[in-house]
TrEMBL record:
Annotated GO CC locations: membrane
Alphabetical UniProt keywords: Coiled coil, Hydrolase
Top-level taxon: Bacteria
Start and end residues of each AB hydrolase-1 domain: 45-147
Entry-linked InterPro entries: AB_hydrolase_1, AB_hydrolase_fold, AB_hydrolase_sf
Protein name: Alpha/beta hydrolase
Pfam families: Abhydrolase_1
GO molecular function: hydrolase activity
Organism: Flavobacterium alvei
Organism phylogeny: Bacteria, Pseudomonadati, Bacteroidota, Flavobacteriia, Flavobacteriales
Coiled coil (UniProt feature): 153-180
Length: 255
């Protein structure tokens, strides 16, 4: 029977000292870009993939605790954080899956657990579909499988138009590419997820920017998946509700 964690307890804010990142970063050249990454801890690998407009700094509330149990690998996706970008090359999820697949090869990591937030969760789902041999356990938080799964989809269109209208000197090129990524992609069907072999945990906040029914359908479409809906949490559950988020994810990964 599938497991669903409907977390109903109140979240108590705690002061947690986050491990300082960007202390021992390195670059690896893959697929026409240089990806910036850092590694913390030892043991079974756990790759953390951030969301659209951010960097791996979003996982600062996870690194210290997770690196006690895993070899935590943090990577900035192309064009974000300290990684480089290819202008004129369309930014797609398939391209980023290629990046991450080659990145794992360069680091001699044949198989890894994955924690992906938002767009990072989408990349995780696609990796599990395209390279199942690379993915052990998969955790996604706030992921969608087609653009209309986002509540503010129509607002995303307006944002791109506004950026394009104010892009006289190409200062908005990257922002336009990033917004178009989520406006156009991914283009999966729920039935595609039936092929995922990895043990999977789907997470969302109880007022996430991803439609609740969309998240539920993702969970239902993945064989033997688990689902956790975090209370008093938005799309940024891993940041604003990190203690509970970490507890749930670690329990799943260490089963």
């Amino acid at each position: 029977m599938k497991k669903i964690f409907f977390i109903t307890i109140a979240f108590i804010s705690l002061n947690i000292s986050a491990q300082k990142l960007h202390e021992k970063g390195k670059y690896v050249a893959v697929n026409g870009v240089k990806l910036f990454y850092e590694i913390y801890g030892e043991g079974e690998p756990l790759l953390m993939i951030h969301g659209n407009g951010g960097s791996f700094s979003c996982f600062e509330n996870q690194v210290k605790e997770f690196s006690k149990h895993f070899k935590v690998i943090l990577v900035d996706c192309r064009g974000r954080g300290n990684s480089t970008y290819q202008k004129g090359i369309e930014l797609t999820f398939d391209l980023q899956v290629q990046d991450i697949n080659l990145f794992l090869d360069q680091l001699n990591i044949p198989k890894t657990n994955i924690l992906g937030w938002s767009d990072g969760g989408i990349i995780g789902l696609l990796l599990a579909l395209k390279h199942p041999e690379k993915v052990n356990k998969l955790v996604t938080s706030g992921a969608n499988i087609f653009p209309e799964g986002v509540i503010d989809f129509e607002d995303m269109k307006k944002t791109v138009l506004d950026l394009e209208n104010k892009n006289k000197n190409h200062e908005n090129d990257l922002a336009i590419d990033l917004n178009n990524l989520d406006l156009k992609y991914p283009n999966l069907n729920f039935t595609d997820l039936n092929l995922i072999e990895s043990k999977t945990l789907i997470i969302a906040g109880d007022h996430d920017m991803i439609k609740g029914e969309h998240t539920l359908k993702i969970y239902e479409s993945i064989p033997n998946a688990q689902l956790a809906i975090l209370p008093n949490s938005s799309h940024s559950a891993l940041i604003e509700n990190s203690t509970l988020f970490n507890e749930i994810v670690l329990r799943f990964l260490m089963q």
